[in-house]
Structure formats: structure tokens, C-alpha cells
Amino acid sequence: MTTLGAERRQHQSGRGGYHPDDHRVLSFRQWCELNGFSPATGRRLIAAGTGPIITQLSPRRIGITIANNARWQESHSRTNP
Fold first, then answer.
1. Residue 6 lies in a domain
2. Contact call for residues 26 and 67 (beta carbons, < 8 A)
């Protein structure tokens, strides 16, 4: 098994580790599609301060890193009642 393969397996199993894609930036629209909601809902989440950490790509363009999206999803996880 390669080192990259070992790191990928460790990351996917939830035991930490670094994965090169963690710092890849999703566009706002890609982030909305990935999470299954509309851009209007994404804007509401961000405006309310309940969205993930934003990366400012230019004065008019934002994005979200894969790592920040994963942390945001994790913070919104819940167990079934």
C-alpha cells in the first residue's frame, strides 16, 4: 500500500490524517449542490452565521474548502431520537 493510500484510508476512517483535497475550494454553487440545497438556502445559512467558514476568493466571489465543509457537516450531526 502506498503512503498516499494509507493516508486516504486513515482520513476516510475518521482517524485524522491529511488529505490533499481538504484544501480544495468549492465554489458557492458547488457547495450548495454537494449539500443538497438551493443557493438561496445557502445564502440564508451564511447570512445567519450558521454556515461554514467562508473563503473569500475575490471581492464578489466566495467558496468553501472541503475541510471547512466537513467540519460544518460534523457540527450539525445528530443522533436519532
1. no
2. no
User: How is residue 20 written as a grid cell?
Assistant: 490533499
pLDDT value at residue 20: 75
Average pLDDT over residues 38-53: 97
Residue 12 lies in a domain: no
> Is 22:65 a contact under the CB 8 Å cutoff?
yes
* Alpha helices per DSSP H over 1-81: 3-12, 28-35, 39-48, 66-75
* Of residues 71, 76, 59, 66, the one with CA closest to residue 27: 66
- Residue 40 domain-assigned (yes or no): yes
Q: Residue 51's domain spans which residues?
A: 19-75
Q: Does residue 39 have a pLDDT over 80?
A: yes
Whether 36 is in a domain gets the answer yes
